[in-house]
Design brief:
about 130 residues, mainly alpha, about 0% strand
Length: about 130
């Protein structure tokens, strides 16, 4: 095997090892606290978000049930999940969540999620959105 082949093999092996070391994200330990801090005040029984969309975020089952318009989490694909799209501001500005600017349709106001919180939710979804 040539030195170029060995180097290429080493790089591929290193990448495989790194991919296997990706941090496992837990719903209960990592995602639920974010939802509780930023979302549940509106997306709970009789809250503005739950009344408008049907989305309750009190627990895993409610989150996975989605809205009256359909599911918000597509396990294995953050980019196909409307939950991820609205928190990353990749959706219409009127529905960015949490609502944090004057264009928002929602009356309640909050703060945009940090990059770390967004990455945590995205990784959890990409890892299969498990109830763990």
């Amino acid at each position: 095997m040539s030195s170029k082949s060995l180097i290429s093999f080493g790089i591929v092996l290193f990448c495989i090892v790194l991919a296997g070391c990706e941090r496992q994200v837990s719903y209960s330990a990592n995602v639920k606290p974010i939802l509780d801090n930023y979302c549940v005040s509106c997306h709970t029984s009789a809250g503005e978000g739950e009344l408008a969309s049907g989305l309750a975020l009190d627990d895993y089952d409610s989150l996975m049930r989605g809205t009256k318009f359909g599911q918000v989490v597509v396990p294995g694909s953050a980019l196909s999940s409307s939950l991820y799209l609205v928190i990353t501001e990749k959706a219409d500005s009127k529905i960015h969540m949490p609502p944090h600017h004057d264009e928002a349709l929602a009356e309640g106001r909050g703060f945009a999620l940090s990059r770390t919180n967004i990455e945590t939710i995205g990784t959890w979804i990409d890892q299969g959105a498990k109830n763990n």
